[in-house]
């Protein structure tokens, strides 16, 4: 059966462009269009779509408000379509926290790469499990600050994609201010990563920043790959971030395979790798290299994933030494990288 999609956007041109991209996929049927949330509400009742594409900025009611109504009254996978602006990025990130399946950026300066992934994301959305969401703004969690955690010198590398915004907040908000150094590759448009790093920095006790080339990799700091560059680790004696704009790897730049592979080569057994929810197979091979280099490797389990894609492939090829639910991930990472835990062992 084909996936039935409702396209919601106040621009007739954009509605046609989205529809044209989706119709290239024989497994997708565009069943209707709406120019604003009022039209969309009627169309949803009449057409019962499997997936909705939703513009972030619309008249009568913004996309975020409408998304919250959808998730309360008629939970349906929603893909947010956002302009590449700071305001668009901020609203889109909030939408991902509130239950949007994923986002795509509207084409800008002739760059259609992210937009061309829309059919794949629609197919994945139709198969996804709708998780219960909270619509209250996320509040900072108070991690353990009583001094019991002391980093043991290991570096943590995390790869994530679809569903990763929620997953990363759930994990990182549990970390203490002196957490192990963490490097993250999250598949996300370039304009969004800076806003996401700032969002994480407000919600988490450690310092979170979009990675810059040459940054020292230090305890108490979390480094998020920019959406336009690969993030690697360099210099084993004094680890630093290294950014480069090489070819896409596993279809992505930044790529989790690139991050994990560099950690395997440079840090080896003094590292811990984590692969979270996401479509495709990016990160699986790099995580396997980490495990072969002696690192502990963790995969998010199927039950807690929005999309059990990247962790599934990693598990199937033997890259994952342990599968954990999202709720257990932070505590396990901290125990594994704790100097006190190592002394007890």
UniProtKB/TrEMBL annotation:
Q: Name where it mostly resides.
A: cytoplasm
Span list, region Disordered? 129-148
Pfam families with a match to the protein in the record: CheB_methylest (PF01339), Response_reg (PF00072)
Residue ranges of domain Response regulatory in the record: 4-121
Q: Which UniProt keywords apply?
A: Chemotaxis, Cytoplasm, Hydrolase, Phosphoprotein
- Domain CheB-type methylesterase residues, every copy: 149-340
Catalytic activity entry: [protein]-L-glutamate 5-O-methyl ester + H2O = L-glutamyl-[protein] + methanol + H(+); L-glutaminyl-[protein] + H2O = L-glutamyl-[protein] + NH4(+)
Q: State the GO CC annotations.
A: cytoplasm
Q: Which CDD domains match?
A: CheB_Rec, REC_CheB-like
Tell me its EC number(s), please. 3.1.1.61, 3.5.1.44
Q: Where is the active site?
A: 161, 187, 282
Q: How is it modified after translation?
A: Phosphorylated by CheA. Phosphorylation of the N-terminal regulatory domain activates the methylesterase activity.
- Entry's Gene Ontology BP terms: chemotaxis
Subcellular location as annotated:
Cytoplasm
Q: Family per UniProt?
A: Belongs to the CheB family.
Q: What does this protein do?
A: Involved in chemotaxis. Part of a chemotaxis signal transduction system that modulates chemotaxis in response to various stimuli. Catalyzes the demethylation of specific methylglutamate residues introduced into the chemoreceptors (methyl-accepting chemotaxis proteins or MCP) by CheR. Also mediates the irreversible deamidation of specific glutamine residues to glutamic acid.
> What name has this protein been given in UniProt?
Protein-glutamate methylesterase/protein-glutamine glutaminase
Species name:
Acidiphilium rubrum
